[in-house]
Amino acid sequence: MLASFKSIGAYTPSRALTNKDFEKIVDTSDEWIKQRTGIENRYIAADDQSTSDLAYEAAKVAIERSGLEHSEIDAIICATITPDFFCMPSTACVIADKLGISHVTAFDISAACSGFVYALNIAKAFVESGIKKNVLIIGAEKLSSIVDYQERTTCILFGDGAGAAIIGTTDKKEESILDVHTSADGSFQDFLITPGGGSTNPCSQKVLDERLQFMKMKGNETFKVAVNTLTKDVKNILEKNNMTSEDIDFFIPHQANFRIIDAVGKKLNFPTEKIVLTVAKYGNTSAASIPMAINDWYESGKLKTGNLMLLDTFGGGLTWGSALAHFNQK
Ligand code: UT7
Fold first, then answer.
1. Domains parsed from the chain with CATH numbers
2. How remote is the CA of residue 27 from the centroid of ligand 1, in Å?
3. pLDDT(300) > 90
């Protein structure tokens, strides 16, 4: 039995935060943000919306489009770095409850921006081993809850949102997820880090005073590793599957920075029309960025059943991953 990408869904909160809005919050400009990142807008969850609320909305769409009953889903995996609670119950358990799905495997994974591709890898293994039949995978983030809105180098980058997919079964190779590759290098752990609140620096007045509960990033260093790693990773997965960029219908990279996507796309000879770009609209939504991008391309009518997607991601850990998957929503 092969694993198949059966459906996609996404949810975007309604509150927009434009570059012009940031000009009033920190010392920055619309021009700087656009030039250095390609970002023009991002969406921010309401105060009373948790990550599971965003995930629930995306999951509902993905389940409906799959044609499955809720009772047919036998596992829920949520990739997030902004869980509803630190550190239990898992956000996946909360989502399961909201969806009215009980007595199924449900857990979160923490692989930052690479979380959705990591979840895809696990779902593929579950399905192909026969352990599960229909796995709901979700990338969901309320990054606004860990963004420091006094720190101009990071706050302009991130937005909130969620994307979800159903990974089911097929016996046809042309409908399947061909390959998923995930990897990590913990020696770069301080490039993207939320230092406070965990067992190293448990929540305390000192953590709050030093603003350690917020995300910190070595942007420049991360940028360089991202371009090199993503390029190498895509070359590897294409070579391993005897393919070139010409075999791919859509290259769907993690939406962190237009300049990273552009550099990787050029090195790999992807024509611009094959590169999926949503960073201008949503900013960086971490684990939600790839499924939100897939959903955008589907809803705009560009992504069709049978198309071969090449996913490519990179994030905190450092983690990275790529996947070759046919889009098989019927
Ligand atoms: O999703 C996880 C993976 N994340 C990434 O891949 C992010 C990778 N990094 C990046 O995307 C970029 O490094 C940033 C967008 C974060 C920064 O762009 P950069 O071109 O690397 O800028 P920089 O950090 O080298 O800063 C250049 C200048 C600095 O001023 P000086 O020292 O040259 O006077 C910064 O202080 O830009 C300044 N700066 C800003 N100016 C206006 C930094 N942030 C801002 C800002 N507005 N928001």
1. 2-173 (3.40.47.10), 177-326 (3.40.47.10)
2. 13
3. yes
